[in-house]
Amino acid sequence: MPSQPVADNPVRRILVVDDSRAQRRILTSSLSRQGYEVTEAGTGVEALDICKQEHFDLILSDWMMPGMDGLELCAAFRKLPLAGYVYFILLTSKTDKGAVAQGLDVGADDFLAKPVNPDELRARINAGGRILSMERELQDKNRLVSSTLAEIQTLYDSLDRDLVEARKMQQSLVREKYRDFGEAEVSLMLKPCGHVGGDLVGFFEAGPDTLAFYSIDVSGHGIASALLTARLASYFSDGSPTHNIALDMGQNGRYRSRAPETVATELNQLLLNDLRSEHYFTMLFGYLNLRTGEVEMAQCGHPNAVRLPINGDAQFFGEGGLPIGLIAGAEFSRQHLTLAPGERLIFYSDGFTECANATGAMLDEDGFAEILQKNNALTNEPLFDSLVWDLDAYSGGQDLGDDLSCVMVTYKPDNR
After folding, report:
1. Would you say 171 and 190 are in contact if contact means Cβ atoms under 8 Å apart?
2. What are the E-state strand segments in 18-57?
3. How far is it, in rounded angstroms, from Cα 135 to Cα 131?
4. Contact at 8 Å (CB) between 159 and 195?
5. CATH number of the domain residue 97 falls in
6. Cα–Cα distance measured from residue 4 to residue 51, given in angstroms and rounded to the nearest whole number
7. For residue 18, which of 96, 90, 110 has the smallest C-alpha distance?
8. Are 313 and 362 in the same domain?
9. Over 60: is that where the pLDDT of 328 sits?
10. Which residue from 36, 88, 262, 284 has the highest number of Cβ atoms inside 10 Å of its Cβ?
11. Is residue 166 part of a domain?
12. 218 and 349 inside one domain
């Protein structure tokens, strides 16, 4: 009764190639007794034809055969499009190193001297089995990696589609990028550095002759930050004053603005007590009196506001303040300034001043002031486009790495 091959040996099917029928029978008989499934071929051409139709784990081929010899068979066999690796042993009486090197060059894996010793044959097959085990294990791992990568790619594609939609939704939070109020006009810019970002800018009417505007920068980037900006946008709704945190109903039934520091305090309480977010945000929130040009604002850890005269240097205003959502009971103060006719007031995110060049040096307020003054003759969207262009030039074309947002209010009371 034939014995079984070693259980963990992947060699099951063997092709024996030899022009000598007697030699083939000796090898086939020995291998069959060891439990292998053996097929015979009398020539190299016959063996090649069989290999095109059937799969083998190992090939035992005589080197010296008429017509196509073992070396030529090995070379031709290695060119076949096979699903897995096949171990190839050449049977030869040649022992010189040049012949062995020639056999290795064409793709042979091992050599066995004739006449074949059964114990040595068994050992060589077992060695080939170990090679095949490693190769097939590697194939299995590669298939697993490929399958996993395909799943990850599917998830990524799905996430990417969702992020594209999320970006559209976030951009929709800025429904108007420009509005002319007669005595003043407002322009907005919002450019996330990724699909979505944590910046938010906006404006709304806050009672008679009062324009409210704000710039917010949520900590971090990505989906969580974007979700918080969406929630914050609902607190400053232009279309639903009853839900606007900055507005109160007056005794005359008309909405009026709440003090900017009160708005900051209530947002701080909401973030810490109700939303319980791990994020915090910085903010500049202000009101412009359309009749007088007076501005009241609360600065909550946000970059300083910039006043840009028609002819003159950019001027920064601010006292810093605490971010919103970091400290319970944080206090916020009110700041005042007055715009002259034609002057502009700009609230911006730190993506501008923290833009770094190739050496790592940040633009800072001085550099930002130079860019603003350089483009002072431009207005609204052309000005924003030029700011981004100059930032890109300063960074040397590097990824800016942070969201860019800006709200610009131009006071023009002579147009009343």
Report:
1. yes
2. 37-41
3. 6
4. no
5. 3.40.50.2300
6. 24
7. 90
8. yes
9. yes
10. 284
11. no
12. yes
- Statement to judge: residues 394 and 249 lie in one domain: yes
Give the domain extent around 124.
13-141
Residue 1 scores a pLDDT above 50? no
Hey, what long-range contacts does 313-319 have (CB within 8 A, 24 or more apart)? 313/369, 313/373, 314/368, 314/369, 314/372, 314/373, 316/365, 316/369, 318/284
Q: 236 near 205, Cβ under 8 Å? A: no
Domain identity same for 326 and 395? yes
Do 214 and 286 form a contact (C-beta atoms < 8 A)? yes
User: What tokens does 210 get?
Assistant: 């009062």
Give me 385's structure tokens: 């486009």
Sheet holding 315-317, edge to edge: 178-180, 184-191, 404-411, 344-348, 305-308, 315-317
Instruction: Name the band, by pLDDT with cuts 50, 70 and 90, for residue 251.
Output: confident
**Cβ proximity of 190 and 217 under 8 Å:** no
Residue with tokens 């700009």: 346
134 and 238 inside one domain: no
User: Residue 87: CB partners within 8 Å, gap ≥ 6?
Assistant: 11, 57, 58, 59, 109, 110, 128, 129, 131, 132
Q: Is the pLDDT of residue 326 over 80?
A: yes
Q: Phi/psi of residue 26, each to 5°?
A: -60, -50
Q: Are 209 and 291 in contact (CB under 8 A)?
A: yes
Give one word for 182, left, alpha or beta, with left for phi > 0 and alpha for psi -120 to 50: left
Do 103 and 221 belong together in one domain? no
Q: d(Cα 151, Cα 149) in Å, to the nearest integer?
A: 5
Q: Is 143 exposed, middle or buried (0-12, 13-18, 19+ CB in 10 A)?
A: exposed
Q: In angstroms, rounded to a whole number, what is the distance separating the alpha carbons of residues 213 and 199?
A: 14
Give the separation between CA 256 and CA 405, rounded to whole angstroms: 27
Q: Which two tokens stand for residue 236?
A: 């400053």
pTM for the complete prediction?
A: 0.64
The structure tokens listed for 137 are: 């294990």
- Which residue's entry shows tokens 């090939």? 59
pLDDT value at residue 237 = 83
Neighbours of 320 (CB within 10 A): 12
Please state, rounded to an integer, the average pLDDT across all residues of the chain: 87
Span 380-405, pLDDT tens digits: 889 999 999 999 999 988 877 778 89
* Residue whose C-alpha is closest to residue 58's, from 29, 21, 31: 31
